[in-house]
Specification:
Blueprint (H helix, E strand, L loop, with lengths): L6 H9 L4 H14 L4 H14 L6 H14 L10 H5 L8 E6 L6 H14 L4 E5 L5 H14 L3 E2 L7 H14 L4 E5 L7 H18 L6 E7 L4 H11 L6 E5 L8 H10 L3 E5 L7 E3 L2 H9 L2
Parallel strand pairs: 1-4, 1-5, 2-3, 2-4, 5-6, 6-7
Antiparallel strand pairs: 7-8
The chain binds guanosine-5'-diphosphate (GDP).
Guanosine-5'-diphosphate binds next to α6.
């Protein structure tokens, strides 16, 4: 899944006959060059230093580093909760998924990928274009719907997203559908308006079933810089977020940004997107990710 490995470079550092202090300095540099933020690298390596004996061997080092990296995920329920994390929680026979995130993160594409995935699994899927702020927001999803032959409940530009969601839930409940996937707007000026918007949509969905939405998924661009990450953090304030989808994971040459995102947002990652077509979505396993980062 991920084609990033630091193993060779770490081996070179550990294999060199340098002092322990020099080795740790080089390791620090390597991890920072892999785009893990400097304070995070310091935190991780300080813990590794404490656990590693004066003269350490390779296997022990990799084991300890792996454990410390995996600890980043404990706040998300992993790494032991791996299965639980990647799995989706569908409490009812008819379920709704709310897709949220900033514009450009890959929301609409991800909504289409999920629709395709669950349709492949035999569910009757309905898409909902509640991104009525942008002219392109709704039409893009409609185009996906045509391509995948999946119906889309649309909203004209400027229409009330609440009414689009209401109509969509109505169709889900009263027609022959199993799953509704709602693409929401990413354009929000303040955290307050964002919260109000998400809470309103959630409230409308809950009127149909208190166990819904089954999942509220935050789409995060895996190639994002700190600024975009700050914006994504706004969404974290909305307590309803049940998972992350890491879009554009194919665009990250280095694994560091993914570690930053996981550590920063501390929400389980359910899927990763690896391209622009409908099939480019994979279940995400934090353990597999770390294994590939430190593996061959
Ligand atoms: P939205 O504004 O959040 O709805 O974002 P879009 O779904 O329109 O995606 C923005 C751009 O990112 C589009 O050009 C997509 O084709 C592209 N994109 C989305 N997901 C992925 C992905 O997993 N990999 C790659 N390479 N591109 C993606």
């Amino acid at each position: 899944m991920f084609k990033i490995s630091l193993k060779k470079k770490i081996n070179q550092i550990i294999g060199s006959k340098k002092t322990r202090e020099e080795m740790f300095e080089e390791l620090e540099e390597l991890l920072i060059l892999s785009d893990i933020s400097a304070d995070r690298v310091e935190r991780i390596l300080n813990k590794v230093k404490k656990r590693i004996k004066l003269i350490f061997d390779r296997d022990e080092f990799f084991q300890v580093l792996k454990e410390e990296l995996l600890l980043i995920f404990t706040g998300t329920g992993g790494p032991d909760g791996d299965k639980h994390q990647s799995g989706m929680h569908f409490p009812d026979t008819k379920n709704a998924i709310l897709i949220v995130g900033i514009n450009g993160s890959g929301k609409t594409t991800t909504a289409a990928k999920l629709a395709y995935r669950y349709r492949q699994q035999g569910l009757k899927v309905l898409l909902s274009a509640a991104d009525t702020f942008r002219a392109a927001g709704s039409s893009q999803l409609v185009m996906w719907g045509e391509k995948l032959d999946i119906p889309v409940v649309g909203g004209d530009r400027g229409a009330d997203p609440g009414s689009v969601v209401y109509n969509s839930m109505n169709s889900l409940m009263n027609r022959d559908y199993d799953l509704l996937i709602v693409d929401t707007a990413g354009r929000v000026q303040t955290r307050e308006t964002l919260m109000m918007e998400l809470e309103k949509l959630t409230r409308i969905i809950k009127k149909f079933s208190p166990a819904q939405p089954a999942e509220t998924l935050l789409v995060v661009d895996a190639t994002m810089g700190q600024n975009t990450l700050d914006q994504a953090r706004r969404f974290k304030a909305f307590s309803g977020i049940s998972g992350i989808i890491l879009a554009k994971a194919d665009g990250t040459a280095k694994g560091g940004t993914i570690i930053n995102i996981l550590d920063e947002l501390n929400i389980p990652v359910k899927f990763a997107g690896f391209g622009e077509s409908e099939a480019d979505l994979t279940e995400f396993s934090e353990k597999d990710f770390i294994d590939s980062l430190l593996g061959e």
